[in-house]
Amino acid sequence: MIKMSLKIYKKLDLTGQSCAGPLGELSGVLEELSPGEAVEATLGDEATKKDVVAFATKKGYKLVSERNEGGKFVVVIGK
């Protein structure tokens, strides 16, 4: 995880989605990011969180932070 100060470009609530849904929506938003921007995604389960983090890092984005908020997983991914 990388500690950096980024502007949150968009917040996504992906808690009701599973399988490829969150990855597809997140992929489109990540492509819109400019350097110094990030997306905050709220996910409904740990398996989806792991998939999202793996997908984003494989594509060259950086995991800025992750936290558990009452059973929901919040990740911030930056460019």
Automatic annotation (TrEMBL):
Top-level division of the source organism's lineage: Archaea
UniProt cross-references to Pfam families, sorted A to Z: TusA
Q: Which family is this sequence assigned to?
A: Belongs to the sulfur carrier protein TusA family.
This chain belongs to which protein, by name?
Response regulator SirA
Ranges of residues in domain UPF0033: 10-79
